Description:
Largest sheet: 2 strands, antiparallel
Low-confidence stretches: none
Order of helices and strands: EHHHEH
Shape: globular
Radius of gyration: 11 Å
Amino acid sequence: MVADGSGALDQEEFVQAFKSVKSLSANMTHEQLTHLFMKIDANSDGTVDWDEFTNHILLEQMAR
């Protein structure tokens, strides 16, 4: 699902990926998805890679 082949999603790729999965984005606005991207982008490099994404999911699960 990485459009540019970089192995990571930039903000627009991330938003589009989430929008394409209706069960993930059904109640989320573009602004909320952008905020989620910034939250997951742990090193603030403007991309979300697999490690950042899985770390975020694991931390969210541990917080429950």
